[in-house]
Design brief:
Layout lengths: L1 E4 L2 E4 L19 H9 L16 E7 L5 E4 L4 H4 L1 E7 L7 E4 L6 E4 L7 E2 L4 E5 L2 E4 L3 H4 L5 E8 L5 E7 L5 E4 L8 E6 L7 E4 L6 E4 L7 E2 L1 H4 L8 E4 L3 H4 L4 E7 L15 E7 L5 E4 L4 E8 L6 E5 L9 E3 L9 E3 L4 E4 L2 E4 L12 E8 L13 E7 L5 E3 L8 E6 L6 E4 L6 E4 L7 E2 L4 E5 L2 E4 L3 H4 L4 E7 L6 E7 L5 E4 L8 E6 L8 E3 L5 E4 L7 E2 L1 H4 L8 E4 L3 H4 L4 E7 L6 E7 L5 E4 L8 E6 L7 E4 L12 E2 L13 E4 L2 E4 L5 H4 L4 E7 L1
Antiparallel strand pairs: 1-2, 3-11, 4-10, 5-6, 5-11, 6-7, 7-8, 9-10, 12-19, 13-18, 14-15, 14-19, 15-16, 16-17, 20-28, 21-27, 22-23, 22-28, 24-25, 26-27, 29-37, 30-36, 31-32, 31-37, 32-33, 33-34, 35-36, 38-45, 39-44, 40-41, 40-45, 41-42, 42-43, 46-53, 47-52, 48-49, 48-53, 49-50, 51-52
């Protein structure tokens, strides 16, 4: 029969109960009927899935022997979840706390011990993180560097449940909403091993989180039964199901979809690979920020890496869930994040050795959502150097790229997370990467740490540090290896790049190549030259929202050379990549901002012209607009009045020279609000 609901006619029997928005109650509207009503605008659409940045966080902090609140924007008190903490500088145990068992109840992943209930450890689960007490179990002692990994409960990502053992084969209900990829179970009332189920092993096999042991066979652990989207099975082994024993289970999804704008994207994967004599490419379909690896066919540590500490093209910093050890930093790459997954190198047998099998768990990099204000993606900090190692803070976000400019003797030094903070590229020269371990030594949650070297901290010298964070629709970074033949390179910008800055990282004479919207022409960041027509750069092919194209030029794609690409796009109110025509008179460049531009880069394209950069930290105001040049090793120029701010973006003044405002001249610019 046909029915009318708020004026819409649908072929359905009306519900006898409302059933809520889910429509699951007896007699409620079916999903098909709800979709008909949604199409007519008469049924509320389901809320969008949360992005990974609301579900998972790697947060770096320093122990203070007192209380402190970690604000990582994960809603633990409202949604529930797990907090895993570890000191990276001192040999404290891995401490795990969850909302199912409550505050101050910690478990140690490197120990068989029962739950340790101690006051003043993790004292509160909050709507935006958690609070730590003064006990060393969470704060790890004054001055200790520490890391927390927070997992929020969410279907198709993570769940935590507690249960009481029966001593007989049984099933345990969960709310993951998909078949688990991995399950970690710990008995809490007495000593017991941590039992690990992983989908890449047989359902008769298990691993032990607190041990280096290889996967073992034991039908009494998982009852030789593969978990389902609603339950997992446990046998009679006391580690998972002793009569009267109490247990907690951490349940992780695998490629279950449910995320992104289409609701089909994955945020967590559990897989395996065979060790090799060469590097191994793991395809996840996304770039990871956190990877856990275990050699499953033989003894080996559990290895935990994340991009917040060091998981880059040139370095790694291992922590071990089965050990209390401090972190083990390596000056070489082990696991390299890529746009579509990660590369396991042959540098360390703990993650890649021929003849052995490995299992892994990986979590997608965030943010997945674009920024809403410019201060989420760009900020600047002014500072005077001391040649004493120090934290540079006040950025407001964990940066992915910093451009260091010494204002007296600028270098245009590009330092980023993906290449590794010890690797430096300088914008004014052809040279490839240099290594500076005393420059920028690490990134932190609100900035970076500088060492005692001259690059970023020379005594009495004044600096401006320009910080950028990778965000969809605004800024992305890709590292790739050249082939010598025309090819596409995947990126994660999610929109078409409008400006790309590419540099050969190796030694040699290949210059910085810049794409700025014309697929037959290129600019050079270290030169004043105008547009040059050259199909060897972009293969006369415009980039797309998923790939950009490079031809055979050594500046972008020489065989076996390593490259880095920085990609930028326009996002309303946040960033603007654009062009303007010079007038030799005062003109306003409307960027679509509601607040003034805080960073502006300009380059003339029809004739010679330097790469000029202004920022609001050093001043963009009538009468004095100090600028720096990317293409020259010359000091900051002050006392000029070339660029002023405007509420929609910025203004070019009549006093500006031909390189900035010649009548009829053509210019490109990049601006951030």
């Amino acid at each position: 029969m046909s029915n009318r609901y708020k004026g819409a006619i649908i072929s359905a029997t009306p519900p006898t109960t409302t059933g809520g928005e889910s429509g699951t109650a007896s007699g409620a509207w079916t999903l098909e009927q709800q979709m008909q009503l949604q199409a007519a605008g008469l049924w509320p659409s389901p809320p969008p899935p949360p992005p990974i940045e609301e579900l998972f966080s790697t947060y770096l902090y320093t122990g203070n022997a007192s209380t402190q609140t970690i604000t990582n924007n994960i809603n633990l008190s409202g949604k529930g979840g797990l907090v895993w903490t570890k000191s990276s500088t001192n040999p404290y145990s891995n401490a795990l706390y969850d909302t199912a068992r409550g505050v101050n109840n910690r478990l140690f992943s490197n120990s068989t011990a029962a739950v340790n209930t101690t006051s003043d450890t993790l004292t509160a689960f909050n709507t935006n993180g958690f609070t730590l007490g003064a006990n060393d179990g969470g704060n790890f002692g004054s001055g200790s560097n520490a890391v927390s990994w927070t997992f929020r409960k969410q279907p198709k990502f993570f769940d935590v449940v507690t249960y009481t053992g029966t001593g007989s084969n049984t099933t345990i209900a969960h709310s993951l909403g998909s078949v688990p990829g991995s399950i970690i179970v710990k008995r809490t009332d007495t000593t017991a091993d941590w039992a690990v189920y992983h989908r890449s092993l047989a359902n008769t096999q298990y691993l032990v989180l607190n041990s280096t042991a290889a996967a073992a066979t034991g039908a009494t652990w998982w009852n030789s039964t593969t978990p389902t989207s609603s339950v997992f099975s446990v046998g009679t082994d006391a580690s998972v199901n002793a009569s009267g024993g109490t247990y907690v289970a951490y349940i992780f999804a695998h490629d279950a979809g449910g995320f992104g704008s289409t609701g089909t994207e994955n945020v967590i994967s559990c897989g395996s690979y065979a060790g090799s004599a060469s590097s191994i490419e793991i395809n996840l379909g996304y770039e990871p920020q956190w990877v856990l690896i275990k050699r499953s066919s033989d003894a080996g540590n559990w290895v935990l890496l994340d991009t917040m500490r060091a998981m880059s093209n040139t370095s790694a910093e291992m922590l071990f869930p089965n050990l209390s050890n401090a972190s083990d930093p390596k000056a070489y790459a082990m696991v390299i994040p890529t746009v579509t997954g990660f590369t396991v190198t042959t540098n360390n047998a703990q993650v890649n050795e021929i003849g052995y099998d490995f299992i892994y768990m990986a979590i997608r990099r965030g943010p997945m959502n674009p920024p809403t204000v410019g201060t989420q993606v760009y900020n600047a900090v002014l500072r005077t150097g001391t040649e004493i190692a120090a934290n540079v803070t006040g950025v407001g976000f964990p940066p992915d790229l910093v451009i260091v400019e010494q204002r007296i003797d600028p270098k245009g030094a590009f330092v980023d997370r993906l290449r590794g903070t010890s690797k430096v590229l300088q914008s004014y020269e052809y040279a490839g990467e240099s290594t500076d371990t005393a420059g920028v030594t690490s990134f932190i949650m609100d900035g970076m740490v500088v060492g005692s070297g001259f690059l970023a901290n020379r005594n009495t010298r004044t600096y401006v540090y320009w910080f950028f964070r990778r965000y969809p629709s605004v800024f992305d970074q890709v590292c790739y290896t050249g082939t010598g033949s025309a090819r596409t390179v995947a990126h994660g910008l999610t929109v078409v790049p409008e400006l790309m800055i590419i540099k050969d990282r190796g030694a040699g004479t290949n210059d910085w190549a810049v794409y700025s919207g014309v697929n037959t022409k290129a600019l050079v960041l270290s030169e004043v030259a105008a547009y040059a027509t050259n199909p060897a750069y972009w293969n006369d092919t415009s980039p797309t929202a998923s790939v950009f194209t490079v031809a055979g030029s050594g500046s972008v794609n020489e065989n076996a050379r390593s490259y880095v690409a920085y990609l930028f796009a326009t996002l309303a109110g946040i960033s603007k990549v654009g062009t303007y025509t010079g007038t030799a008179a005062l003109q306003t460049v409307n960027c679509g901002f509601t607040t003034s531009a805080r960073w502006v880069m300009i380059k003339r394209t029809d004739s010679t012209g330097s790469w000029y950069v202004w920022d609001s930290a050093r001043g963009m105001s009538a009468g004095n607009d100090p600028y720096l040049l990317f293409n020259a090793n010359v000091g900051e120029v002050t006392g000029t009045n070339y660029v002023d701010t405007d509420t929609t973006g910025f203004k070019i003044t009549a006093a500006a020279p031909a390189e900035i405002n010649a009548s009829g001249g053509s210019y490109i610019f990049l601006a951030f609000a």
